[in-house]
Structure formats: C-alpha cells, structure tokens
Amino acid sequence: MTDEWIPALGRYAQRLHTTAGARHHVASPLGAWLLLALTASAEPAGDELAEVLGVRPAEAASVASALLTKPHPLVAAATAVWHAEGRVDPRRLEGWRAGLPAATEVGPLPDQAALDRWAREHTFGLIDRFPIELTPQVVLLLASALATRLSWDTPFEVGPAETLGGPWASRLTRVLRTPRFGHRAFVATSRHAGEVIVHAAPATDAESGAQVRVVSVAAAGDVPPDRVIAAAYEIGRDAVTGGPAAERTSLFDLPLGDGQLWSIREKTAAMHDAEQVSAVLPAWSATSDHDLSAPELGFGAATRVLEQLVGFHCDFEAKQAATARFGRYGFEAAAVTGFATLTSMPEERPVRFAELRFAHPYAVVAVTDQPGPWHGVPVFSAWVTEPEDEAAG
C-alpha cells in the first residue's frame, strides 16, 4: 500500500467542500471516501469509481482495510454494511462482504432507532441521529463513523478579542492565543493558495505516544475556499511527515508592518531564535448536514457498482452529519456518513390475497430437479383421500 491515496483524499476533500459552499461548515471527506473504498472492494469496481477515489479500487479497498483493522488510538472509526431482508438475496453479496475489512459490521438492516443508536455509540454521543431516514425503498445501507475527542498537550492562553483584528474582533470578547511553548505557528507559501499562515496544535495519546495535530491555515481573503482547503490538506500532512509544504517562510523575507494576515515588527533583543511567531485564533464550533449526491462525489458511480451485486436498478441517497468544537483546552469532532441504495416501490393498486385449502381428495407428485437424465422425472405420486392429524411435538 502506497501513500498515493492521501493526496487523492485531499482532492476529494476539495470537491466535497466545494459542494458545501462558502458557508460555515464541518465535514469528514475521509468518512465519505471510506464508503466509496468499501464499495471498491466489489468486482468489477470500474474506472468511474477509480477516478473519484483517485487511486485504483483495489488500492482504496486496501487502505480502508488497513485504517479500520488498526485504528488510530485517538480516532474512533467504524463502518457497517446492512441489507434489507427479503429485498436482497444475501447470497449475491457473499463475495463482496467476504472482502470487506473484518471490523466492518454486516447483517440485516436495523430499524431507525438502532441506526440512531449506532451513530451515538460510535461518535461519543456527538452525533445523535443517523443522517439517512430509513424507508421501505432502502435495500443496501453503508455507514461510516469517525470521532475524536482531544485535549491539547498545552492549552491555549486567552486574550482580548481586539488582538485578533479584522471584522470578527468587534463580535467577540476573548480569543485564543498560542502558549509560549508546545504549539507551532509560521508563514508558508502554498502552491494552492499563495502566502498562508499556519497554526498547529498537538494532542498526544499518553499510552501509545500517537498524536493528532489540528492544523489551521488562512490565506488572503480573495483566495477561493477550495484552494485554501487544498493548502490545508497538503500543509497538514507535511506538518506531520516533514514534507516541503510545511516549510516556513523567513520573517526577514516579509515586509514589516501590518498586513491582512500578520503584523511584523522588528527590535533589538538578546534571544537565541531571531524569529518569534505567535498566533491568535477564535474558538469555534460547527454542526453541518451534507447532501453527497453531487456526481463528483462518486456515490452515483458506487451505486452502479452495487447494482451489479443486487441484480436490479437502484437510485441512491448519500448524506453526512458532522460536528466539531475547537477551544482553549481541546478539540472534538465526529461525522457519520450514510449511503443507501434505493429501489422504487410499485404503485399502489388492488391486491388480492388467497389462502388455498386442500380440504378434499387431491394428487401429489414428487419430481426430481437435477440437470441431466433426472431432470423433471416424477418419482413418487399419490392421491390423498385419508388425511391424518400431525403428531404433536
């Protein structure tokens, strides 16, 4: 398994956030991408799904398996694949489900209350309801849940809102200031968004030493949101791996004075590091619902793959519920993504029901059903005139 899928996820994130628009929102592109990757384990997944995933379907399926088999200590992850009993022959799904990650829950479709409970249990209670409403049209339902609840290694300090500057300062009273040590703040040049400012706050799992770093990236106000998202995905990854996108720009290469993104001053002082950078950020929270039906998000392509499994034409519904909170002491976020394949219900019409009663003499014939010479051979026959009571037990 290579790391090609991580830049591919970044490109997918651009598309997802573009569909959400410039409104305040939170999302988990990974949560949606994982469901496409589960679908990619079906054969044949095809080029259409590969284009959306950004990697070969087999590679995406391998990534999903690796992520779910050994989840990050600070990120709860769960997936499920459910089918509607009586609507889908489970034998048609056996090959696909056998290739799913062992951690993926499979089985008959739960009721709405159980789906809501699944969402709560896998998101620390942050998502209260499953994003898709269960209807009789649902034949297959795929779900993913991702959640994290972090405490910063070093909490923020708190300062007056006027230090933030800009139009938000008049709307706030207090803002977050980076502590003297423990956080990272710098200016970088992104190929996606030009000069950007970056802040990274770490949270570490005490037992394993594993970390999550929450990286904030801002660009000039006229840079489109999708370009800033792309910069954040690239810089965020490189801030962890040491890649070039996270290399800081020297303050001595920037003009002194106040700009849209920073204020730079110079004075003479006895300090080991000639560049001192701090950051001021607002606290924030967001709760969002996303319709994932746009063609570029891939669930139409995934539906066409699943149609080959169930054996009939399907429509689909794909939605995500996400929530997050960023504050002085930590960060928490959760997302539940649901992807349902739907079949049309027949129009209502008069329907008659019959109960057949064998209440007088009748014939019985036993016929073999096997290819070859035994195909359609009546082996036993009878004429029944003396019925008996069935033995108790």
Q: What structural keywords apply?
A:
393 residues; alpha+beta; Antithrombin, Chain I, domain 2; 6-stranded mixed beta sheet; 3-stranded antiparallel beta sheet; 16 strands; 29% strand; Serpin_sf_1; Serpin_sf
What does this structure look like?
The protein is α+β, with helices and mostly antiparallel strands and 393 residues long. It folds into 2 domains: 5-149 and 288-342, Antithrombin, Chain I, domain 2, CATH 3.30.497; 184-278, no CATH class. Helices cover 24% and strands 29% of the residues. It has 8 helices and 16 strands. Strand 6 and strand 7 (194-204) form a beta hairpin. Helix 2 (29-40) runs antiparallel to helix 3. InterPro entries: Serpin_sf, Serpin_sf_1.
SSE layout:
Elements: H1 5-20, H2 29-40, H3 46-53, H4 57-69, E1 76-83, H5 94-98, E2 105-108, H6 112-121, E3 138-151, E4 157-160, E5 174-177, E6 184-190, E7 194-204, E8 211-219, H7 225-241, E9 257-258, E10 263-264, E11 280-281, E12 284-291, H8 299-310, E13 315-326, E14 330-342, E15 362-367, E16 378-384
Parallel strand pairs: 1-2
Antiparallel strand pairs: 1-3, 3-14, 4-5, 5-11, 6-7, 7-8, 9-10, 12-13, 13-14, 15-16
Helix pairs in contact: 1-7, 2-3, 2-4
